[in-house]
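Hi team,

Filling in the usual template for the complex we talked about on Friday. All components are listed, including any nucleic acid strands or ligand strings, so the model treats them as one assembly.

SUBMITTER: L.P.
PURPOSE: interface mapping
COMPONENTS: two
RESIDUES: 678
SEQUENCES:
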Amino acid sequence: MNEELYDMLEQADPQELDALLADIALPENEGRLRPKRIRARALQKAGLEEPRRAALFRIPRKAAVLAVCAALALGIGAVAYAEDAREYAQAVTFFAENNLPTEGMSRGEIKEVWRDITTGRFSSGKTAETLNNALGVTGWELESPSPEQVGEMWAQLKNLDYLQKNVDGTGMEYWICYDDSDHYYVAGLRDRATVWTVSFPHAIVERCLPLEDGVIFWGTQTVTGAESGDAPLTWAARITSRGEVLWEVVPFVYERFQRIDTILQEEDGFAFIGHAGAKLFLSHLSPEGQVLSRYSVLPKDALPYSGIFAVPFRDGYLVRIGESRIATLSREGVLSDFASYAENGLLYSIDDMIEYGGKLWLSAQTSPAPTGGNAGGRDEIANVLNEIFSRQAFSIPDEEMTRLLRENYTALLLVCDPEGGAPETFYSIPGCLGYNLAVNENGELEWYVQSVRQAFFSPATSSFTIGGECQVYQYTFDENGTLLSQKDTGETTIYRK
Amino acid sequence: MDDQSLLALLRENPERGLSALMERYLPLVAALVRGRLDGVCPRADMEECVSDVFSQLYLQRNDIDLSRGTIKAYLCAIARNKSADVRRAAGRYDPLPDGWDVPEEDSDAETLLLRRERRQAVVQAVLRLDNTDREIIVRKYFFRQPSAAVAKEMGMTVSAVDTRTHRALKKLRAILGEETL
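RESULT (copied from the run log):
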């Protein structure tokens, strides 16, 4: 849900409206407004009289009964065929929606792959072959992939949270999935085998926080009222590693367009931090799910729709409330500006924050601000897209695309005085995007960056224009900021913009 | 009856033309107006607003240029403007929180241009969704139908509508390459 979408569609011109409304069945008259009265008033305002209504045609009663009987007889005989046709139609739609190729596949194979993917099994060789074909253009095809690899291929192709998985302290792995009816369910797996599933048909499950034993899933649930319309509420559920639901909770005082951004585990329970429109929300919950306190805060500037996250900091929290802006949030809900990073001609984005060695460290990335058009609001890669478009070519070799993308980004390690003030650049790595920060068991600071390894231009793909893959590198520093080591972690991440 | 014929009928036989227009598009306009005015004014005012939309289109029948949009699109544009008038008359503005300044007027040419570019980008992004997702987004964000109504009319469950809305919004953010939506 978002207000900008309401706003933008509200301003659409007639031609855009026609495109938006094409092939959409007109809403039905639900009967709350009285058509006869409206007709009469419209004619009256137009200075006209209601024309005499004449019956255009009438179906004889006997003929109608015969027609219904004939339809029923045909229908019974066609049930089995209809079921197969319905499944096949669903499968074909699924292929089309996900840009999967059907060339050379039989009707049965298409349905087999559809079932294999939508049930999350990824065990059919045909699925691997289909995804290989779909990914072939990117050069990412694999030979004889395992079901896990096929699942990852699917996640790569979709760049979605379907396979978002997390592991708790007992080794239980948690997945967020949705079934054929588009209901969300969560699954607990051990050794890649599903041990239990819990369905949440009333919720949209977005993320999870693995605990020592169990997990908290969170997202929104929708309560639809006839008068009020949709009222999505923030929602969270705690589940043990054995699949028992301990509690479900609505953590914040309701506000339109609300969402949970971060859940932090604390000594005495959990801190929930979220936002809606201009307001920030903080709630504390006991381990048993009892809401202990609720605060709402009104920052002096508007908050972005997403990209807000928080980390523990001193006695409270540090919250990223804009691409390059951070603030402190006390446990009592007092928000104070902490730092922001800005420089003319450059865009900054903070990816992670951590306090270490008496200083605050920020993992960030920078890219040039758009010098021409903003490429439909995609400021971060506007210059890259403008460069491609200026060549008036709708294809570009992957090597060239990779070079342009690497030139666009620089990963930055910023350092700040914990009392506040402007961050300073401590380390920068061209060709990379920022990633995570952590302190390892040796007490060293680990900074992870994503090095753009390959990229491709895909203007016809619906969900992104530039895709690619990054290699994750780790840099280690001691408390004095001395670089201790640098290594390739072997991990890769997917780039989509 | 296509738009050309309907427009011709409106011009040549106004009573029949306007009746035919309402026969076809009354549910559409009623849904648009209800989505914007439910809870803002009584039912009778909503009905007045819907009748205003049709009489307005009739009064402008000689100015309608079908190369710029279909009758359906004209009706939608009039319906949202009339609804906005009613909201304004009812004093339904979302007030700014205490201590907030009223934003400066930003109707200069550059701002309008930027806003238009942004709107075009968002509309294009919605058009790049698959048909089902586009229909759900249009129903929820343009017609402002609750999920239950969308589900009923599209033959889906309410949770399926909510899930697909959530995913469609994610796709839109990805297409627009940003996180502001």
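MY TAKE: Residues 62-153 of chain A form one domain. Chain A touches chain B through 88 residues (CB under 8 Å).

Thanks, L.
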